[in-house]
Amino acid sequence: MPEHSLAVENASVSFGSGSTRVSALTGVSLQFAPSTLTLIMGPSGSGKTTLLSLLGCLLTPNEGSVFIQGRNTRLCSAREKSALRRQEIGFIFQAFRLFHSLSAIENVVIKSDISGDAHKHSRKHSRTLALDLLASLGLDGKMHLKPDDLSGGEKQRVAIARALISNPKILLADEPTAALDSNSGRQICEILRRLAKDQHHTVVIVSHDPRWTSFAGRTVLLQDGRVIEDRRN
Prior knowledge:
The protein is α/β, with parallel strands linked by helices. The chain has a single domain (6-232), classed as P-loop containing nucleotide triphosphate hydrolases (Rossmann fold, 3-Layer(aba) Sandwich). 32% of the residues lie in helices and 27% in strands. The chain has helices spanning 48-55, 78-88, 104-115, 123-136, 152-164, 182-197; strands at 6-15, 22-32, 36-41, 63-68, 71-72, 89-93, 170-174, 202-206, 218-223, 226-232. It has a 6-stranded mixed sheet with strand order 6-7-8-3-9-10, sandwiched between helices. Helix 6 links the parallel strand 7 and strand 8 (202-206). The radius of gyration is 18 Å and the shape is globular. The relative contact order is 0.20.
């Protein structure tokens, strides 16, 4: 599937066993292409987070397959899946997950250290790349501030820069605007839409936030672990 960078095929996930067994996803098939921001919505318990975990190689389906850049992850070892996550996927979370003792730029550079990119590039190169990313996200004058000195929207922009430093082609975001005010949330929506449209990333957002509907190129609705609607906006 060369035209798609990410896909799930007839994927089902369940938790527990016997009378306590719960089906989280049932027979879900979806394909995600570059240059598109896809919004996944649905009520609590609909399977949104489970689907995002499948796409990020954090869960393995009980049935069906997940494809990343054409590779069937069911055929990959744990080490190969870990490498796919590091090289191909950037994660963005509601809670930012920044190190409070580190500055904005240090929070971005540390991703290269943890992922092993420091072996491929010098730390100076990683720092230059982090500077460029933060500047492109409007944080020129705040690179040396620590998270406690940044607003919620600024923290999320640092988190986006951290997700981008390994140059992943896929960005997965779990409720990235839930903790933000209206203005900051709109800025994050616009940044992620621009990354999809102008820089050809595959962007998948899980959110309850209705602000996303005007930014997404596609909306997928889940209910009880099944896709009930898949529409182009």
